[in-house]
Amino acid sequence: MLDLTGKNILVVEDEDMNFIYLRQIFKLTNGEITRVKTGKSAIETCLEGSFDFILMDIQLPDISGIKATKEIRKFNMAIPIIAQTACRTPDELDKVLSAGCNDVLIKPFKLEDFSSLISKYI
Q1: Domain for residue 57, yes or no?
Q2: Which residues lie below 8 Å from residue 49, measured CB to CB, with a gap of 6+?
Q3: Which of 86, 81, 80, 82 is nearest to 106 (CA)?
Q4: Are the C-beta atoms of 16 and 60 separated by less than 8 Å?
Q5: What CATH number did the domain enclosing 111 receive?
Q6: Could you report the per-residue pLDDT of 45-97, keeping only the tens digit for each?
Q7: Residue-range definition of the domain harbouring residue 20
Q8: Is the pTM of this model over 0.70?
Q9: Of 71, 74, 91, 119, which is most buried with the most CB atoms under 10 A?
């Protein structure tokens, strides 16, 4: 199991059920999470705090995770940003990576997929 003790993670997720699932995963890994529900909140929170990585939902109620990622990249190129999306089309995945996301986690995902991907960036 991935150990995220002492790691601060920003989770950008507007859907409560998706967040409950993620919260359970982070409890297992001992990671500290901060949740925001919008792209604009993600940008503001990144300006105010320090995080080890961002788990970025792409479909958000205000601005997309793609736009939020582009804005975050204007002031922070170092932080790993992992997109989480249900979209699997090559065009959409290209947009996500071109925006500045380091990787993509396809919903729904298993704990093993999450651990394997995150361990590349921590």
Answers
A1: yes
A2: 8, 10, 34
A3: 86
A4: no
A5: 3.40.50.2300
A6: 999 999 999 999 999 999 999 999 999 999 999 999 999 988 878 898 999 99
A7: 8-119
A8: yes
A9: 71
